[in-house]
Specification:
The structure is a single chain. The protein has 3 helices and no strands. The relative contact order is 0.07. By secondary structure, it is mainly α. It starts with a helix and ends with a helix. It has a domain at 50-78.
Length: 78
């Protein structure tokens, strides 16, 4: 009798674990309307970057990435 009850409880727990509902991600809260290089409406932009100029934007990103490159940073400290 105890064995059957234990088996029934175990089976119930196993089936309860299968009742997880599908989780779907929410839609993004904000969608970008313009390309990243087309501008920032404030004065907090990097020097040398011209709003609306894709080449200038890409050059600024390359410069920023190189400043974070540990190989370049350690060579400059020598």
């Amino acid at each position: 009798m105890i064995k059957r009850a234990l088996c029934a409880v175990s089976l119930g727990l196993l089936l309860a674990a299968c009742g997880d509902k599908v989780q779907v991600g929410a839609a993004p809260a904000k969608k970008a309307d313009a390309q990243a290089w087309e501008g920032a409406g404030n004065a907090h932009v990097a020097e040398g970057w011209k709003a609306g100029d894709k080449g200038s934007w890409e050059a600024q990103l390359r410069t920023r990435a190189q400043a974070q490159n540990e190989y370049n940073r350690s060579a400059a400290q020598r």
